[in-house]
């Protein structure tokens, strides 16, 4: 019997969003099919892996990932250029974790200095993340958005509690914006609507439905992403057509499986390879669910993800 | 094809005799179409109608067992494309390839790895499910010898015999007679002979095709030869092809009830690097493979793949949960510490595991919070001071403990005052935030 495959044509399309400037600018999204379904439509852009760095040394990262940045991670500029030049990262994600009041409590001015120095040193796109302290992020992100004016960065994360100031800052300085909600498709849609009602162009948004690690709620992120993508494509819902972000490294490198030594957990095998795979597999699962931008920590995990993307596109 | 109510109605006796419990044959047909009734309720339906309707109402992907006994893996029976629509049914099986070019001791080594691969995660036992014995040597005698070695060293483990040579298959299958192995490698050149071997040994036939057209032609032919149980390989090897072909197969099967593709899919993920192989395997796990074949099974790789499979195959509506009660860890005496947490399986297993690690006999009160984690339950109002107080009071644990002290999770430290108010005479102690700090916490208290 001859087989007629049932191919789908979708009504909607994910917005193509360009990050950065010059010849290292990168475009993500733009597809009118489910992830890696180029057999039935267009998927013009490859997902992007951004390497995560911090404004302060990664003392809170586990040894297994910290040691990959030995000698560079005490200086954000060296760390960023290492990721760009040695690891060939397509983008850098700078987390200003040192501004958190419970951490070093660095000021907005300190953050501005770091951002300017990093931007001066790199040509790939920069994602600038706050410390996830809703209040402090408003002042910090406002200042850094201005300092990074016209470099077409991604600023994040705007959440229900603080989106107004952050979105206004991103808008005034021509940046893209990450909108983050908590593992709920309706909350995600609502935040996108609220932000666009302020006059922020919905085609400049990136949606972060909140990440979770393999074994620790991954299935929730996976399904929320799949549902968002289906709403974008099948219902042509313009409030759900933003590229999706998976902030993978931060969630993965705190779970037990990425840290416990083999001597404690003999049935789990090598701790080093286990940690790397835990991050890579979380990322790969989210790619299949619909993520277009991933923020990752371990160079080997990122490399493995790039390699599987090569096989997927 | 799935039949509509009207199409089914045409096949019924149309006497409206009501013996099926429905007012009319049409009403009964509608119930059948919605799978709310079964055909055996109508005593008068003709044999011919039974045959047509039976086929149409069979599950869109044929249920097949890989192996027998307590190590058997169920395959097929899937009904949806996306896990948020409905729980995926039968978790995909992981198989390790064993080449017949390996020495006996190498085969024994892999068999041992398979036998010891089982780990416990969130109350489920997870393991490498099967061995795929492949005829890499091209020599029937070697395959037979390797089959004997596998049967001896990995008793009970389901087996896939991979060869395009029917004589080799015939020789190698003997140790697995009656144990529901798969004979994989039937293609256009050998279908009849391979089908004969599968039939003689009641094995499942693995069809190897190049593309979906050929696959359909081969499964139809095999069916005409009397083969019912098949697993199918559309020839996808690259990750991209696995997504494409598995998606088209799943769509055809569940949306169109297209029978020639209504079988479990076998995917091959073997790669040089273990890390890359694991990621390609993940594509199969997420996208509809029923068997994923691997070339190595290191423990670090297994635990990640098992966990992904568990995540993808959990019920999206009901989080995994454990029973509400006070669990003893070790043999707690009256003065043993008493902890409280929620009944989300993941939370319970992490916390009880860490208490076990501390080697301090304890009690762990697990409160029904509809399977939510500590913070989620707290945010959802299901792990509140009054509910905790009520649960502790109702449990009667007060009579069994010497000091009325309750240790609560560090993340809900904010509740301690309110619980103390509602549980007069009790002391509420705030434990660490992360469970892995419990052993140190208990040590510093002692
Ligand atoms: C997956 C998830 C969900 C899932 C539910 C999963 C589940 N079965 O619980 C879903 C999507 C349904 C969900 C929903 C909501 N969620 Co939610 N969710 C998460 C997420 C990502 C992971 C939770 C998890 O599984 N943790 C793993 C388990 C093992 O952790 P745990 O139970 O806390 O146990 C640890 C410790 O507490 C400790 N521990 C546990 N017990 C004990 C006992 C003692 C004595 C001690 C010492 C220690 C200890 O040990 C464990 C390991 O260290 C977290 C964010 C995150 N990454 O943590 C948010 C999170 C918990 N959710 C949050 C919220 C707000 C919600 C919602 C209210 C919001 C919404 N989206 O509508 C809803 C409420 C649900 C409802 N029904 O109304 C917030 C809570 C905020 C807060 N601080 O109060 C969080 C923290 C997200 C955030 N804001 O960052 N959520
Ligand atoms: S029992 Fe059969 S014949 Fe009688 S009403 Fe029901 S469907 Fe019709």
Percentage beta strand of chain B: 15-25%
CATH fold assignment of chain A: TIM Barrel
Instruction: Count every beta strand of chain A, where a strand is a DSSP E run of 2 or more residues.
Output: 10
The largest sheet of chain A, given as strand count, sense and whether it forms a barrel, is: 8 strands, parallel
Number of domains of chain A: 1
Describe this structure in words.
The complex is a heterodimer of chains A (about 325) and B (about 450). Chain A is α/β, with parallel strands linked by helices. Chain A has a single domain (about 40-310), classed as TIM Barrel (Alpha-Beta Barrel), CATH 3.20.20.20. Chain A is built from ten helices and ten strands. Chain A has helices at about 65, 75-85, 110-120, 135-145, 165-170, 185-195, 220-235, 250, 270-290, 300-310, and strands spanning about 15-20, 25-30, 50-55, 90-95, 125-130, 155-160, 175-180, 205-210, 245, 290-295. In chain A, strand 4 (about 90-95), helix 3 (about 110-120) and strand 5 (about 125-130) form a beta-alpha-beta unit. In chain A, helix 4 (about 135-145) packs parallel to helix 5, helix 7 (about 220-235) runs parallel beside helix 9 and helix 9 (about 270-290) packs parallel to helix 10 (about 300-310). The longest helix of chain A has 19 residues, at about 270-290. The two termini of chain A are about 30 Å apart. The relative contact order of chain A is 0.14. The model of chain A has no long low-confidence stretch (mean pLDDT about 95). The N and C termini of chain B lie far apart (about 70 Å). In chain B, helix 10 runs parallel beside helix 11 (about 300-310), helix 12 crosses helix 16 (about 440-445) and helix 14 (about 385-395) packs across helix 15. Helices cover about 40% and strands about 15% of the residues of chain B. The mean pLDDT of chain B is about 95. Chain B contains 16 helices and 17 strands. With about 450 residues, chain B is α/β, with parallel strands linked by helices. Chain B has helices at about 5-10, 25-35, 45-55, 105-115, 140-155, 165-175, 190-200, 210-225, 240-255, 275-285, 300-310, 345-360, 375-380, 385-395, 415-420, 440-445, and strands at about 65, 75, 95-100, 120, 125, 130-135, 160, 180-185, 205-210, 230-235, 265-270, 290-295, 325-330, 340, 360-365, 405-410, 425-430. At the A-B interface, helix 7, helix 9 and helix 10 of A face helix 8, helix 9, helix 10 and helix 11 of B. The site of iron/sulfur cluster has 13 residues of chain B, from helix 2.
């Amino acid at each position: 019997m001859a087989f007629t495959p049932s191919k789908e044509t979708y009504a909607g399309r994910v917005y193509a969003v360009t990050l950065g400037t010059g010849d290292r600018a990168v475009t993500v999204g733009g597809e009118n099919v489910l992830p890696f379904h180029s057999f039935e439509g267009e998927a013009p852009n490859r997902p992007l892996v951004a390497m995560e760095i911090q404004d302060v040394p990664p003392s809170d990262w586990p040894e297994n990932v910290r040691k990959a940045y030995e000698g560079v991670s005490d200086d954000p500029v060296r760390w960023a250029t290492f990721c760009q030049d040695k690891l060939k990262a397509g983008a850098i994600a700078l987390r200003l974790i040192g501004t958190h009041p419970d951490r070093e409590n660095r000021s907005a001015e300190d953050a501005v200095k770091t951002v300017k120095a990093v931007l001066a040193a790199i040509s790939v796109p920069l994602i600038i993340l706050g410390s996830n302290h809703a209040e402090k992020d408003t002042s910090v992100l406002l200042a850094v958005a201005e300092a990074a004016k016209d470099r077409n960065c991604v600023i994040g994360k705007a959440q229900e509690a603080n989106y107004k100031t952050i979105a206004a800052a991103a808008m005034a300085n021509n940046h893209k914006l990450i909108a983050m909600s908590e593992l709920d498709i309706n909350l995600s849609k609502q935040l996108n609507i609220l932000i666009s009602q302020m006059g922020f162009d919905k085609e400049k948004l990136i949606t972060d439905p909140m990440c979770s690690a393999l074994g620790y709620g991954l299935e929730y992120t996976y399904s929320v992403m799949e549902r968002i993508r289906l709403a974008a494509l099948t219902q042509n819902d313009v409030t759900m057509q933003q590229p999706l972000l998976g902030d993978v490294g931060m969630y993965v490198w705190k779970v037990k499986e990425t840290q416990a030594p083999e001597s404690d957990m003999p049935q789990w095998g090598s701790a080093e390879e286990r940690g790397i795979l835990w991050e890579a597999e979380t990322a790969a699962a989210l790619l299949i669910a619909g993520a277009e931008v991933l923020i990752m920590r371990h160079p080997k995990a990122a490399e493995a993800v790039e390699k599987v993307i090569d096989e997927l596109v | 094809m799935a039949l509509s109510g009207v199409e089914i109605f045409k096949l019924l006796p149309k006497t409206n005799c009501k013996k099926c419990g429905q007012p009319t044959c049409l009403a009964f047909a509608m119930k059948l179409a919605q799978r709310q009734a079964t055909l055996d309720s109508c005593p008068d339906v003709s044999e011919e109608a039974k045959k047509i309707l039976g086929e149409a109402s069979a599950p869109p992907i044929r249920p097949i067992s890989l192996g027998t006994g307590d190590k058997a893996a169920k395959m097929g029976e899937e009904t949806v494309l996306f896990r948020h629509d409905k729980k995926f049914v039968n978790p995909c099986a992981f198989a390790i390839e064993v080449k017949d070019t390996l020495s006996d001791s190498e085969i024994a080594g892999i068999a041992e790895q398979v036998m010891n691969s089982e780990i416990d995660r969130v109350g489920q036992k997870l393991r490498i499910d099967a061995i795929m014995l492949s005829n890499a040597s091209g020599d029937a005698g070697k395959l037979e010898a390797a089959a004997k070695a596998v049967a001896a060293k990995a008793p009970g483990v389901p087996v896939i015999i991979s060869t395009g040579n029917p004589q080799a298959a015939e020789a190698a299958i003997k140790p697995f007679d009656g144990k529901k192995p798969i004979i994989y490698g039937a293609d256009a050149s050998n279908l009849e002979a391979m089908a004969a071997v599968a039939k003689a040994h009641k094995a499942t036939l693995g069809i190897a095709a190049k593309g979906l057209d050929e696959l359909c032609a081969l499964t139809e032919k095999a069916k005409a030869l009397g083969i019912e149980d098949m697993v199918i390989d559309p020839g996808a090897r690259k990750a991209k092809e696995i997504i494409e072909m598995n998606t088209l197969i799943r769509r055809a099967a569940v949306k169109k009830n297209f029978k020639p593709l209504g079988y479990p899919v076998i995917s091959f993920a073997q790669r040089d690097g273990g890390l890359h192989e694991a990621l390609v395997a993940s594509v199969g796990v997420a996208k509809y493979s029923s068997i994923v074949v691997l070339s190595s099974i290191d423990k670090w790789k297994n635990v990640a793949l098992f966990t992904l499979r568990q995540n993808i195959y959990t019920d999206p509506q009901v989080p995994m949960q454990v029973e509400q009660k006070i669990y003893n860890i070790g043999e707690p005496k009256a003065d043993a510490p008493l902890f409280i947490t929620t009944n989300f399986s993941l939370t319970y297993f992490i916390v009880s595991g860490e208490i076990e690690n501390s080697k301090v006999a304890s009690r762990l009160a697990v409160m029904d919070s509809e399977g939510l984690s500590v913070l989620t339950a707290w945010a959802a109002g299901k792990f509140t001071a009054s509910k905790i107080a009520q649960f502790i009071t109702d449990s009667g644990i007060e009579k069994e403990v010497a000091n009325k002290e309750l240790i609560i999770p560090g993340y809900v430290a904010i509740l301690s005052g309110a619980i103390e108010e509602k549980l007069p005479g009790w002391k509420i102690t705030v434990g660490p935030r992360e469970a892995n700090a419990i052993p140190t916490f208990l040590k510093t208290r002692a």
